[in-house]
Amino acid sequence: MKYLLPLVLFLSVSGAAMAGTTAEATVENLHAHLLEAMQGGDSLGYSGRHDLLAPVIEGSFDFETIASIVTGRAWKTASAEQRAAFLDTFDALSVATYATNFSGYDGERFETRDSEDSRGSRIVRTVLVKSDGNEITLNYMLRETNGDWRIINVVAQGVSDLSLKRAEYTAVIESEGFDSLVRRLREKVSEMAH
Predict the structure, then answer these.
(1) CATH fourth-level superfamily of 4-193
(2) How far apart (Å, rounded) are the C-alpha atoms in residues 88 and 94?
(3) Exposure on the CB side of residue 46, measured as CA atoms within 13 A
């Protein structure tokens, strides 16, 4: 029993330090949890993967910065209620997407290749190595906010997630309005959860 408290304190401190000290640590922590979700796959089920990944994703991504970029000029004119609704829904969609897409394991592994500073941000270059040796490039752009490195963009195989979402979301906002975008995203979350 006397060894339990030091162990708990060590795990708490080392986990917190790993998640927020460097941009690379943020990405590697995310990858470790994605692998755990993949390896748990069917035994965890969607809800188990969701519960495992939610705190990590919420702690790894800067959703407010992402939201302001993907909604374009509409973010500045949106009401506080609209912004809050979008942030809650976008957070839920992000977790649901990862819980859905990282649902099976076939010997894959993540590798961090290198990183560099880039105009106030940090780029962390990684790959997902599949069991056949093929690689999927995953490059992360992170910004430091209050001592924590948070992801603001993921570029998979050269395609920017931020750019794709901005094109999709601003088109919906321009044709149907901000509230319609939030409604559509909620529908996507609901579809993934079932």
Answers:
(1) Tgt2/MlaC (3.10.450.710)
(2) 10
(3) 11
